[in-house]
Amino acid sequence: MSAPQHAPASASAAVSGRSPRARRLGCLALALVPFVLIGMIVEAPSWIDDYRLARMVERIQAYPLPDGAEFGSFDPQAETTGGDSGDCWYTIRFPVSTDRPVHEVLSHYRKAKIEDPDGDLGDFTVTAWAMVDEPGGQGDEATATGPVIIDVDGVYSGSLLDGRCS
Question: Which residues are listed as membrane-spanning (predicted)?
């Protein structure tokens, strides 16, 4: 008796230890590697700039709060909002609950010497949003106390390849 015609194919599959489907998937994965690497190279400048901005958020959180204040109910939010000629505009927003008037909280953060993503001290602007129309809110913006949302806005030199900063 002679061996069937397809025996050598199954013998080679048994020798290689992989099915034809597994080999095709392996080849497909290998073909995708250059595209994944290119994607990582393209995104790396954005990741680096996001890391620099995240470090500034950490420095803001480490900075002492004004007397009678504590961080609010949500974590700070940071975003790159655009740019021009390689400079990135950013906004960091965080809530503060306080029994102090808004102008005191603003003054506290405007005097802060917190390092920005470029390493400059205090090179940003600070604005505040007071919730004065809330039930039980007190007075106008100058004398309001309670929840305050602080915005820290500034510019840092982004990576040349970060598309958000072009």
Answer: 25-48
